[in-house]
Design a protein that fits this description.
The complex is a heterodimer of chains A (229) and B (403). Chain A is of the alpha/beta class and 229 residues long. Chain A is 36% helix and 30% strand. Chain B folds into 2 domains: 197 residues, no CATH class; 179 residues, no CATH class. Chain B contains 15 helices and 12 strands. The chains are: A alpha/beta (229), B alpha+beta (403).
Amino acid sequence: MNVVETQNLEKLFIDAGTEVRAVDGVSINVEEGEFTAIVGPSGSGKTTLLNMIGGLDNPTKGKVQVDKVELTELSKNELIDFRLKNIGFVFQSYNLIPVLTAYENVEFVMLLQGRDPKERKARVNELLVAVGIADKAKNRPSKLSGGQQQRVAVARALAPKPKFIIADEPTANLDSKSASTLLDIMQQLNEKEGITFLFSTHDQRVIDRARRVVTLTDGKITEDKIVDV
Amino acid sequence: MIAKIGWNNIWRKKGRSFLVILSVAFGIWVGLFFGAFQWGTFVQKLDDIVNRELGHVQIHHPEFVDEEYDYNFPIQNPDKVRDVLKNDTSVSVFVERSIFSAMLQTPRNQSPVLVYGVDTTAEQQLYSITSMITQGEMIAGRRAPSLLVGESLANKLNITLGSKVIVQGGMLHGVKSFVGRVRGFYESPNKMKDKIVIYVHKSDLDTKLGDGFTHEYSVLFNDLDLLQSNKKRLQSQLPVNQVLTWGEIMPEIENGIEMTDQVMFIFMLIIWFALALGIVNTMLMSILERTRELGMLMAIGMGRWKIVQMIFFETTILTAIGVPIGLFLNYITVGYFGEVGLDLSVANAAIEGFGYSTMIYPAMKESFYYQVIFQVVLVSLISTVFPAMRALKLKPIEAIHKN
């Protein structure tokens, strides 16, 4: 079953009076349980494509469906609500809430969803264990390393049980060891729990782990291959 | 959790938060203090001039005031006036005086004066003339009437205790004069009055001048709020005389109070404007610094209304901390100056010009608290609207990538 479907997705920017086609007619389907990397050089349109799939940006043209819901037809508030319930985000620079602890950062999205306290507690503890950071639950982000922060970010993205997780260059700011640990965790979550991951990356370590690699060049898909792992 | 984020955000930049708290505290403090100052001034003026001297209303011959306190225009049918005032339950106190303009002459000097023929015992109901005496005394029944003269007038005319002076006025049957002896000096809070008013016992005056004229009834009511209706009623009962309120007799005092109100209103506007600028600036800085974080919150599904709630929560907390600090500062300063008084002798001349005391004792009214706190909270919340709007306009995708 497709979690994501895009049809002729286009995004135009005007940069210094010049029209730039960041994404140019991209049609892509992502099935449930995929561990897919969208790769390409800087400026190839990876992030722009993910932003449109994640409902953070509107396409200039084309359609994008997540779980059969056409995102371009949703209002701003409906989109916020849709993201809250269906999409998990992992950002390149972690973007945790600095004034909350690791535990509270993970719990926060569930609070926005209005989940009851028991469920939240159980889920947060389960996720913190899953990402190997349970002993740092009470630490604020400033007391965590980059790798630990990114693991908290992954736990936060997973907390509301989203349809899929968008990870924009998740390892870009991490050292090899931290990146490897993070990828191990995400891979395990994908394999054991069937969580769908969609990465944008040009990090070879991520590409090596991906089971599908979609290459974007100048906003167009130039290669889409299934990798035998 | 939103409250927790808001709360922790406040303490992220302590200096900035303290600035807002201090602004709010300062706004409350200054607002209340000046309210107290204004009210204290008003009460003082009322006490100095109205309660102690003019009365709430005065009754005269209809032409007495226009004729510049001429002796020839006494109260008409004073017995009826006395009866009406005695039987009116709204009247708390009334005194009768013989007042007229005159010339005080010493062998070498002279000066225009207002002669107040008073019954010192009756006047005690309004204020104690004897308590103003700085030297000497005021004894009734002497052959040469005892005069009580303001110290400043005495200095001006080089009068000493025991000096004989001539008081001469334009009287009903030609110019009459009497010789009095200065037996006391006084000093009142009203410096202007000290220069022109001399006191004499009304009984002595009646004996010397032989007419038994009364020129003025000064009346205090039980309830000042009913001044206008009381005045109307008295006027209808006493049509041959004229009833004037204190504001009509001395419009400059009423104008002075109104002018003070206006000055204070402008002053408060400036204070609120400064407070608003401070809050807008600080909250805007706070939001600009958190642009990426706010973008992330929107991206992961935090609704716009919740973002606004969070920002308003922060201002509300800062205001809630600032308000009691302001109240405390006000409590201390109004408490202190309410006891000790604020000496405005620096602006002595101008204040004396209005004829009242240079010592002001700030006083609080309960309504000030509600008014000022309401105004500060309102200004704080209104000031947050602009920063909140800025936050709402953020686009998550742009905000996340802001450095």
